[in-house]
Automatic annotation (TrEMBL):
GO terms for molecular function: ATP binding. Keywords: ATP-binding, Nucleotide-binding, Transport. Residues 8-242 form the ABC transporter domain. This is Metal ABC transporter ATP-binding protein. Coiled coil: none annotated. Belongs to the ABC transporter superfamily. It holds the Pfam family ABC_tran. PROSITE patterns: ABC_TRANSPORTER_1, ABC_TRANSPORTER_2. Signal peptide: none annotated. It comes from Saccharopolyspora cebuensis.
Amino acid sequence: MTATEPAVGLRGAALSYGPRTLWDGLDLDVAPGEFLAVLGPNGSGKTSLLRVLLGMQELTAGSVRIAGEPARRGNDRIGYIPQQRTLEGTVTVRGSDLVGFGLDGHRWGVGWRGRRERKQRVDRALRAVDAAEYARMPLGLLSGGEQQRVRVAQALVGDPAVLLCDEPLLSLDLAHQRKVSSLIARQAEEAGAAVLFVTHEINPVLPLVDRVLYLVDGRFRIGTPDEVMNSATLSELFRTDVEVARVGGRLVVAGTDGAESHHVHEVDA
Ligand SMILES: Nc1ncnc2c1ncn2[C@@H]1O[C@H](COP(=O)(O)OP(=O)(O)OP(=O)(O)O)[C@@H](O)[C@H]1O
């Protein structure tokens, strides 16, 4: 990747499932170090966008590049925090194993020195999310939020150039929401990662957000939070009257007929 190359580049990108178009004509460059919030109602195609970047889903039209190369599966430049799904109690993979998968494809697995360095990195990543004690525990025995912290460690352990986060704060308590948000922000600010952060609730990360991609029913808007998160733009996007107010530095969105009711459900009160 050169200095001028975007970390993520979509050109004329479209994704349809059968007759249903999730989005079309999407041109988006995400620069190294940029934090992009991806918003939109259920089913608007936010997770599908991340799957395209992961090389798990083909575009219907257009192109996608990651750090200057076509998107492909198993790209070790990408860290991915998937949408939370609680693992069954029968899952016996240990915390340190799951985090170690985040380094697969890297050179740390080779030789005793590599193995020692690999273990150090895994331990450091687990400590960063207060999950050191889960290193040897079967993941199925951990709570949803504890599992989530291990997934965050997995996504960050490989020092990714692109960090894809699918509702990463969902099951975390307030202290861990803050911790995980700041780890993600640090990966952007200090390591220059491009962050795509899918969320139903922008407020906990609003201070970190450079731009917003808002998807609604095949339409979308891209811009700074002020450019997108205002009554005129969201009313046009939702094709109904939407009121956006700033209250004490927080955004309150009303009038999207329940589709976006999450905006008034404050998780970071
Ligand atoms: N492989 C597939 N084949 C057909 N339809 C699919 C496929 N994957 C996703 N969809 C549909 O595409 C739509 C968008 O799904 P996606 O998971 O991207 O939405 P989302 O914006 O992430 O939603 P949510 O907020 O509920 O997580 C959904 O209606 C889903 O059923």
